[in-house]
Amino acid sequence: MVRTTLFGTGLVTLALVVGAGVYTAGYTHGAAVPVAQPEGEPDMEAMMKMMMEAAAPGEQHAGLMKAKGDWNVHSEFSMGGMDAEGHGEFTAKSIIGGRFVLSHNVGDFMDTPFEGMAITGYDNIKGEYVGIWIDNFGTGVLYLTGQMERGSLVMTGTTLSPAGPHEMKIVTTYTDDNTMIDTFYDKPGEDWVQSGTVTYTRK
């Protein structure tokens, strides 16, 4: 990410600030869910069994449900040498039979009203966490995918800004059942650079 202009230094990334943790919230361990493959030509019963296994929510989905509820949000970011803060709240709930978490986020950042929504889940077939994000700081859709790494959920994606596309990463860690922290990273060159943190406190 180019760090010499407001848009190039993370305004689009910062659109994720108030409530971005709902993307990555709540799972502290996990692995891909195995989906058995029948040998030879599958019959209808075997196909149905495969479909049921692939569609069933598992421990990864249960872990994401830790984010359910109402939270207060405080964000701190560094943008091109300028520090910025934001405040807000979000509500997260289970949808589609416990397969996804839906969040609605409201607040402010740099005295600007902020609103965003996220849907987060775990793809049994791909064996990875998945998420989408939309907000009033843009008109695009951000897609994120990730895995568990050393007890934290790491989600990565490519976001667009007037300065062009750049890679971003969000690492979510729970310090206890009522506090989670998102640490944001950008990749202006070869290495990841921390750009800010968002702290969530359960109401």
Structure description:
It is a single chain. The protein contains four helices and ten strands, in the order ααααββββββββββ. Mean pLDDT is 82; it is low at 1-30. The longest helix has 12 residues, at 44-55. The chain has a single domain, classed as Lipocalin (Beta Barrel), CATH 2.40.128.20. With 203 residues, it is mostly beta strands. The chain has helices at residues 7-14, 21-24, 44-55, 59-64; strands at residues 69-79, 82-95, 100-109, 112-123, 128-135, 142-149, 152-159, 166-176, 179-186, 193-202. The radius of gyration is 18 Å and the shape is globular. Strand 4 (112-123) and strand 5 (128-135) form a beta hairpin. Helices cover 15% and strands 49% of the residues.
Percent in helix: 10-25%
Mean pLDDT: 82
Radius of gyration: 18 Å
Main sheet: which strands, in order across? 1-2-3-4-5-6-7-8-9-10
> Which fold name is given in CATH as the topology?
Lipocalin
What count of domains describes the coordinates?
1
Name the helix and strand elements from N-terminus to C-terminus, one letter apiece. Answer: HHHHEEEEEEEEEE
How many DSSP H or I helices? 4
Oligomer: single chain
Q: Biggest sheet, in brief?
A: 10 strands, antiparallel, barrel
Overall CATH class? Mainly Beta
